[in-house]
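Record format v2
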Amino acid sequence: MYETNKLLKSIGISKPSLLLDKNRVLSNIEKMASKAKASGVRFRPHFKTHQSAEIGNWFRDFGVTAITVSSLDMAMYFAKHGWSDITVAFITNVLEMNEINDLSGRIKLNLLVDSEQVLSTLNQQLKCRVGIWIKIDTGYHRTGVLWDDFDSLNSLVKRIKSSPLLDFRGLLTHAGHSYRAKSLDEIRKIHKETISRMLSAKDYLKDIGIVTCEISVGDTPTCSIVGDFVGVDEIRSGNFVFYDLMQEKLGSCTENELAVAVACPVVGKYKDRNQIVLYGGAVHLSNAYIPDEYGRQIFGYLTNLQNRTFGSIIKNAPVISLTQEHGVVSVDDELFNEIDVADFVLVFPVHSCLTCNLYKEYHSVQGEIISRL
Amino acid sequence: MYETNKLLKSIGISKPSLLLDKNRVLSNIEKMASKAKASGVRFRPHFKTHQSAEIGNWFRDFGVTAITVSSLDMAMYFAKHGWSDITVAFITNVLEMNEINDLSGRIKLNLLVDSEQVLSTLNQQLKCRVGIWIKIDTGYHRTGVLWDDFDSLNSLVKRIKSSPLLDFRGLLTHAGHSYRAKSLDEIRKIHKETISRMLSAKDYLKDIGIVTCEISVGDTPTCSIVGDFVGVDEIRSGNFVFYDLMQEKLGSCTENELAVAVACPVVGKYKDRNQIVLYGGAVHLSNAYIPDEYGRQIFGYLTNLQNRTFGSIIKNAPVISLTQEHGVVSVDDELFNEIDVADFVLVFPVHSCLTCNLYKEYHSVQGEIISRL
């Protein structure tokens, strides 16, 4: 814990703060970019995890020129910071037509549709050309046209093709059910099924004369685990930039790839129950959890700093409960004795996208402050 | 749904937004303030739920002059907005001594301690007088000195009494285990036990010669349900200002007292599974949940606007899953047909403190915009 305290106190923080290891982030980006390159697919990373213009710039060195976001707010932010090819990977919220018309006049904006209603509003109110992806449901059952609902596909694609301001780009899916997989084999199976279903839909379109149709896929578990992307034109993974405990549990990453942690001051120690209490609660970590082998809900695990990077996941130091500003950590005798009130401890988050969303800035272990949206 | 859409579109919002009914808020404040007055206890409401200077001002009309917050950041914010008697109801984070010394020179600042370490740092580094409460653990087992650990109590109180800058105020507890109660009777039982344990500790202090010692309690479930506060000097409830689905389930409030809801645009409808998908996810609602009678995790229930206030909890329209920006709502045939893509729906949050924390402002159904910390 000595190095953790020394660093955190030297950078002048005194309350829960989001810490990032830039070297790990760069290594995570490099690995995913190389894999995309080796497979000959476009790498259009999702920026909803980091939501930072500065971290976005780190991707440019790896040849990234096109990005994915999940809201028009994020698209506006990254457009302001020099990104000119952006896909909003969320069914288009046509209530935001002002933002859509503003952006589509300035950048290559790509939107998602899965219904006639949305297409109809776009047709009536668009002022500039946009790229259009049809969202396909390959088994996650959140949004999208079912992959084998060829009638709907036919009618949507015809409507897009007949519209002067809509450029049909292809079929896009998010195999989010990979997050519920119990093994690496199950993740590989989901990926295989996803690609096969996407290709069926593409074949159908070919049969009705639509020959130009890209395939875009993109969840972090499958993009991390599978070796290649045969049949795919574009991958959109995002969480891989930081990873988190949920991904580590799934097998998408190793603990050495976890690139963010939350630094929390210790405010109390309770010997009768071997617990330490952190200034660090649901508003600092989010209340996402993973189950442990005893069926408990775990909201994070402690780690520490070793040679200016994050150490192992300390499995015998789980965050076992969270309230608004408090986190309760169960520790063994050794750790209990080692940690003092007013020390800092580091917590690996369960779901880094939700945790990072709670902060205005990152502190890197390299000593920089990096701002967010 | 007609009134909901009409109002929300008239106030010019186009994405997930936090909505508040000012009349309900005022009524909730009035009820709690009257109950405190009738019991002859000081009402020191917790402002961590709303975190808004403007909403804070609404309390002044009900005679409130002293408040509770859960962080030094909030204390700084409310001090800037004219509050001069503030208790930070969180074990003191001594890493923030700069903030403590700044505030204690300007306002009546009250801090919590439960350990020698924190007292020791305060003694060494404080520059002005502060009020000190000893945090007591009456059964919640988060922080605090165990109510019957008289040795620790003795040693802490003696140290406070001997210190020139520390004014001993009394014993403070948070019976947070009331949130896990299964019935109103169990909540009443917890309250009774809490008061009895606090009075035991107070009696002990009297025996060792400490005659001035206040008792402060404060969770919303017990403060909402019990009829009086015999033996208590101060109540600190906070969530009651808005309440939420968790409180309604506990029986702390009725559905007519729910004072906030999140307005979310509908982006998709999926007839094969009778689900609608909202632009409104974990970053707009928080991923707090309550179980329903089928054991499902419920992240919110729809409601609507009727005569400019919130309607009933629509129990057959639960939010059954949340991801970063998506919410999936299961609806019956009638509601499915009634709701269209690009409509707004309203979602009652499970835990309003966490939901409100995700927004920079409230929109009142009365047409105002109210800013937050």
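Chain B has a mean pLDDT of 96.
Residues 184-207 of chain B form the longest helix (24 residues).
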